[in-house]
Amino acid sequence: xxxxxxxxxxxxxxxxxxxxxxxxxxxxxxxxxxxxxxxxxxxxxxxxxxxxxxxxxxxxxxxxxxxxxxxxxxxxxxxxxxxxxxxxxxxxxxxxxxxxxxxxxxxxxxxxxxxxxxxxxxxxxxxxxxxxxxxxxxxxxxxxxxxxxxxxxxxxxxxxxxxxxxxxx
Length: 169
Hints:
By secondary structure, this protein is an alpha/beta fold.
């Protein structure tokens, strides 16, 4: 199965007394999500579903991806991939919505540092490795779900800069 982990696009600053879960995408964040969808399409990524944490910015990112990807994949709010979820919860949420077959493809719009930790665990990176997941970044991993365990390897990592998103900004 192919899994794309995406950090939401740039979001509004947290207001004093505001809730992190209510922060929306900025205009730049919206452009990052649209550009990411176009970029993923150019790579031939065709997800059957897009999972998003319940946070506003991840739901907005997922909705924009769905709108701009072929087949408009279904967006599913996955409450277990909120900030602090960790690799086990992210993988459990993905596995619960797929057959984990070679043909399955899912995008999960998550939070940091959960994306980095999940990528490092799946791809067996050293404990002290660092993945710079700035807003709008994408990680693609091939997963094998044999023996009831997840094994995988990193296929790609793209930051908005490497996708040439918003370079004029």
